Amino acid sequence: MFTSQEPLRLQSQERETLQAVIRSTRSPAGWVRRAQVLLLLAEGLSVRRVQAQTGMSLRRVVYWKQRWQQEGLDGLLDAPRPGRPKKLTAEKEAIILAATQSPPRRPITHWSSRRLARRVGVSHVTVMRVWHKAGLQPHRLRRYMASPDPDFEAKAKEILGLYLNPPEKAVVFCVDEKTAIQALDRTQPALPLRSGKPERHSVEYVRHGTVSLLAALEVHTGRVQSRCVARHTSEEFVRFLDEAVGGQRRKQIHLILDNLSAHKTAAVRAWRERHPHVQFHFTPTYSSWLNQVEIWFGMINRDCIRRGIFRSVLDLVSKILSYVRLYNRNAQPFRWTYRNPRRRIHVSP
Fold this sequence. Notes:
The structure is a single chain. By secondary structure, the chain is α/β, with parallel strands linked by helices. It folds into three domains: 12-76; 90-134; 152-192 and 200-329, 2-Layer Sandwich (Nucleotidyltransferase, domain 5), CATH 3.30.420.10. The protein contains twelve helices and five strands. The protein has helices at 12-23, 29-42, 47-54, 58-71, 90-100, 113-120, 124-134, 152-164, 234-245, 266-274, 293-305, 313-329; strands at residues 170-186, 205-218, 224-229, 252-257, 278-282. Strands 3-2-1-4-5 form a five-stranded mixed sheet, with helices on both faces. Helix 2 (29-42) runs antiparallel to helix 3 (47-54) and helix 2 (29-42) crosses helix 4.
């Protein structure tokens, strides 16, 4: 077999294009292999050395080199293959998509691939392919909460300013409560994780009681102060505020919190009058996601509470406080990415 000893010559832009094909996680494996072959040839490697490194036969190495020289990047594509022509027309695909986005007959709430296939007269596999191509997943449901607060943008802008450009010589805390955390014990031992089987817990449980967790997240260090209480009351909230701001008396303090009634009682208003260096910033209505401590509540729920087995309320409190201490050892501030309060869900009345 005749093979030229002259190395394949690539322009810098062509080399970058081939490297991009290799780096992409979406490139077909065949394209990646062909791009690797061409780059090795461009480095001056012989055809036999390229074969040894890639496993591609000598004939195919020469073939793809010639295809590149003749057609460039298009030469890496597979040639049309013989076979039965595509049955699904663009018109039929549009019918499937339109039917997917219209609701089925009551009381059915959403389409399944087989139900829609019977409706439009195709196989359920065809329906699934069309859905995958269009990025449709009718079986999935996500919930949202749109804020009706007319001052949403102004309030959100104020809170975002504290996250992204805090005042000098000031401390910003995100404060909230996770109420009614249940101390659940299982009636039978947990079965451990095994190959092919997840960890399993008994369905039946014993409920020993509940506890409420008060937490204050310092925005620019990520550290958390916490307090567990039997009942979530305004008096307990005021005691926790004393603990949270106790070491910051010489600094201006900004507290970000939601609109819970316990945050606006007469006891809290009296506390604010006694602490003029503390400023409250309330999130817009139904927008507690703007409070960073909610992220931390999600973490402790996932890591400690949801799968925990607690023999008593005291056991639950002990494990919560242990988690807080462990978290604070390596605490880091959250990287906040939401910056434009105009970008939010709007629902027409």
